[in-house]
Amino acid sequence: MIGRRHFLAGAGAALAFPAIVRAQGFSFYPFTLGVAAGDPSPDGFVIWTRLAPEPLQRGGGMAMNPVEVSWEVAADARFATIVARGDAVARPELGHSVHVELSGLEADRSYWYRFRCEGERSIQGHARTLPVASARPSSLRFGVCGCQNFEEGYYTAYRHLAEEELAFVYHYGDYIYEYRGGWTRPGRGGQLIQSVRRHEGGTLYDIAEYRRRYAQVKSDPDLQRAHAAHAFFMTYDDHEIADNWVGDIVWPELPPEIFRTRRAMALQAWYENMPVRRALFPRHGELRAHRSIRFGNLAELNFLDTRQYRADQPCNDGFRPACENVNAPDATVLGAEQEEWLARNLSRRQARWNVLAQQVMMMALDRRMEDEPEPILNLDTWAAYRVPRDRLLARMAGLDNVVVLTGDEHQNFAGELVHRDRPVAVEFVSTSISSGGDGSDRRPGIERLLARNPQVRFNNDQRGYLACEVTPEIWQSHYMVMDHVSRPGGTLSKRASVAVEHGRPALIVP
Ligand code: FE
Ligand code: CA
Q1: What is the pLDDT of residue 22?
Q2: Cβ-based neighbours of 55, under 8 Å, separated by 6 or more
Q3: What is the phi/psi pair of residue 296, to 5°?
Q4: Which of 15, 388, 405, 451 has the smallest number of Cβ neighbours within 10 A?
């Protein structure tokens, strides 16, 4: 705990500030939300922090003034060799967040960074730049995680993720959850899910409340460790805004122009709290989150947005039998522009592995866990959008090197994506950091689901993350799971490693 500081320490530093930037005179440590890096490229990455001396107070305890923050980047963990430094302004308009887009760094190496403000210093973060596009890396190891309901478990998996040797981490969203849950709720297998800590505030409707939820989540020391250890590629799913939203539609039904006001506030709060580039700055309530990167010639990762451009879930959403509308010819998941962009990227065949890093399940599973008479779909997944799904699988069929990474399910799955009776790609579905609570190896009733869906080759219902280990010849996804998250101090273990060989979209399961 950092105690009260003398106002003078801040006032002295303030002399060098431009006239518009007034000293805050912090009573409490301002870097309570840690630091983060994101969107690495071969010559840089974004470094992020947000000032919040009192994270749960309105405005994070900040006076509504712009405040100058200085930053430095070093070639070593002891900051003996500073390679870049500068000043940035934390503005009240952006929740006193700071995004610095670094460039001019060397490819494929480690850097360390930290911030200072009025005599206070942040923790230090580490990030790696990517290899240049013409490089021929012999391997890549990266993490995949998301779904971190603060109420339903401790973030111990993040503490372990921080200790992994990784080039970067892909986050599939549900970084915050927009509601306040009860102390218990039934899970989809009838299991009891218990809350172990409490969201401040209720359901989020205005930007101050979205900001406060991020502040509460980001106060978690294990999450801060993970961000300080690795650069993240951030995406969002539904709960950054509202449960199962798509486009300008949300349940219960609202006039679209009204939902768009909430969506705009939520997307702005998301931008403020994520280490993402200026290209993702929201404009007119929208932001362009889909983007792609190359890890030399080894892998191309396409980070998708499966929410903002998607057509309404057919058949009233939820888990139900399919209705006629799942075959709607004009349905879309990605929207025309993003779908064309993805098709162009895939057709270029620039990398050994083509990765779709996205949110909702692409396998079309029959979700029956009992003796229901007809097949049941999760209508919030690709299964409910047959025409665009078939179109995408047909593209993959010509490639034989596509790997799909998915979240949302709060369960681990590995399976094959089948098009016209032939597997055309594989899908690794990563569980959750905390959402759903402890879980167990098998969710009650899952055996029946697995019997009905032979394309699923691996399943597990514990919390954790994926560590993907990629070489030109083989891709291995290590399913890392926690024994519990309902108390601090859980233990991590490798539940399984599921592999796929390049050129043969069939899973190798131990
Ligand atoms: Fe989730
Ligand atoms: Ca979700």
Answers
A1: 62
A2: 32, 33, 61, 212, 215, 216, 218, 219
A3: 55, -140
A4: 15
Q: Distance between CA atoms of 314 and 383, rounded to whole angstroms?
A: 11
Burial 242-258 (b: 16+ CB within 10 A, else e): bebbbbbbbeeebeeee
Rg of the chain (C-alpha set): 22
Ligand closest to CA 146: 1
- What is the pLDDT at residue 19? 45
Checking if the pLDDT of 177 tops 90, the result is yes
Q: In the predicted model, is pLDDT for residue 9 greater than 60? A: no
Question: 434 C-alpha to center of ligand 1: Å?
Answer: 9
Which residues surround the ion ligand 1 when the cut-off is CB under 5 Å? 147, 174, 435
- One-letter amino acid for residue 78 of the chain: R
What distances in angstroms separate CA 239 from CA 97, 179, 214, 387, one per listed residue?
21, 8, 12, 26
User: pLDDT higher for 385 or 24?
Assistant: 385
Average pLDDT, the chain: 95
Question: How many angstroms is it from 433 CA to the middle of ligand 2?
Answer: 13
Task: State the distance from the centre of ligand 2 to the C-alpha of 438, rounded, in angstroms.
Answer: 18
Whole-number Å distance, alpha carbon 500 to ligand 1 midpoint, is: 26
**pLDDT in the model for residue 25:** 79
Between the CA of 184 and the centroid of ligand 2 the distance, in Å, is: 19
Q: How far is the CA of 484 from the centre of ligand 2 (A)?
A: 21
Cα 115 to ligand 2 centre (Å): 33
Distances in whole angstroms, Cα of residue 436 to Cα of each of 119, 192, 195, 313, 461:
41, 9, 9, 23, 9
The pLDDT, as a whole number, for residue 14 is 39
Ligand 2: distance of its center to the CA of 468 in Å?
Answer: 21
Ligand 1 center from residue 75 Cα (angstroms) = 37
